[in-house]
Design a protein that fits this description.
The complex is a heterodimer of chains A (414) and B (148). Chain A has 414 residues and is of the alpha/beta class. Chain A has 15 helices and 17 strands. Chain A has a 7-stranded mixed beta sheet with strand order 4-10-9-8-7-5-6, sandwiched between helices. Chain A has a 4-stranded antiparallel beta sheet with strand order 13-14-17-16, with helices on one face. Chain B has 148 residues and is mostly helical. Chain B has a single domain, classed as Sufe protein. Chain: A, CATH 3.90.1010. Chain B contains 7 helices and 2 strands, in the order H-H-E-E-H-H-H-H-H. Classes of the chains: A alpha/beta (414), B mainly alpha (148). Chains A and B meet through helix 13 of A and helix 2 and helix 3 of B.
Chain lengths: 414, 148
Amino acid sequence: MATIEEVQPAINIASIRKQFPILERQVKGKPLVYLDNAATTQKPLAVIDALTSYYSGYNANIHRGIHTLAEEATAAFEATRDTVQKFINAAVREEIIFTRGTTEGINLVAATWGRQNVGKGDEVIISGMEHHSNIVPWQILCEEKGAILKVIPVNEAGELQMDVFHSLLNSKTKIVAIVHASNALGTINPVKEIVAAAHKVDAVVLVDGAQSTVHMDIDVQDMDCDFFALSAHKLYGPTGVGVLYGKKHILEAMPPYMGGGEMIKEVTFEKTTYNELPYKYEAGTPNIADVIAFKAAMDFMESIGKENIARHEQVLLNYATEELQKINGLKIIGRAMHKTGVISFVIDNIHPQDIGILLDNQGIAVRTGHHCTQPLMSRFCIPGTTRASFAVYSTIDEVDALVAGLHKVVKMLS
Amino acid sequence: MDKVNTIQDTENEIVEEFGLFDSWDDKYEYIIDLGKRLPPLDDKYKVDENKVRGCQSTVWLHADYKDGYIYFSADSDAVIVKGLISMLIRVLTNHTPDEILNAKLEFIDKIGMTKHLAQTRSNGLLSMVKQMKNFALAYKLKMESNGN
């Protein structure tokens, strides 16, 4: 593909790759080809350095300390909150709650807003392409409350059947919890349309942004969603940190999630009053180091430009789609019009696990299996897929390595 | 299958065979070949209680008992896993419950399988071993209670 440079002169992939030390390593005696970015992205030096400099320079517990280290740590921690606010364009910083990850964010909403607002006979809408972490919390809630879980079906291309979605909405619908971009298929869902329709029946909308935030510009105010959950480790940040965005008036009306330090204003044995947002939902000592380093990850993305990243990944996606289809018996699962840099496929008579093992033997890291979306796999009548997913540092050469690797796998297994 | 072979003998044979391969490509070719040649499992044994948990692929494992000996048969929808089971069966089939329960199965480590397969899949391998030993234990207890 000689056209790559013409298509995107804006970013220099070689210099970006140099910022990721792990990309220099070998696996099974071959250069690592890391195509499992939808599971987690690798971390740039800036993130690794931020972790090190916190621990070696100003490690302290935050918010309560009066000494210099505590003040420095608090300032750095809260600076990440400001960066997140800008990163997803939240109206105010109080709307940014740090969690352990997307899963915790969704569970928090189900356990607080859900318990408070969903009752017997009420309806919760999810979709057929949800990750288990956006299915199970709602099942638990519905079981507890006697509410009903409704599912938006997925069509053969791997897109939501929006006509069915609209027909599912009614006055009993309390919340719509929907994935922004499918981890298994890459499908980007029309969340803005979903939010607008749900609001017409006074339902709130939670958007699972675990897969989308790394691939596109997120503007929660424009989207008008009520909740948005994401994980730092999927956008070049550290593991163990996530963000739950919630509209301020909704977060204020919700009961607390976990009790403990940080989240209280005053405690007596008779009654406890809760702290203000966002601390009300941040009980206990948070993951200070990783929250601080998360800022470096967002700064890294901003320095390249989200649009540039998205454009690069689309080039890779298009090229990979074209090349993979040339492999005999290969079928791409998920042919949505709008996709992130995720490509899922099956090959006739070959189990994904065999593909994964044999690609790993060539130094190529992909994901195989059901991707924690078993209902979606059942929808396509397959046990699982092989999934390659791209990041800003992925290259055309790596797509070529994947394609060559697959040719070899097919040869070995036939 | 030579009946005189002890479990340890067969383990040693496999370790020796794997020593002949230069690369993991060759080792996988061999395992794939073993998988393809594994005799098919009768469909009536492909039931939930014969499924091995902890594998990304579906694995069925069935045990027959005859005159104090256990005979294993198995199938999987993934061929490398099938090759791995084929090796386990070669080592453990046609032995007494006690022999199976006492088998150390160090060949798995010695041929580099534990190290080479990602943890999740190697856990699948360990689940298979566990299930084979469970069959042996069940048969042993059954024989003992019949003996009393």
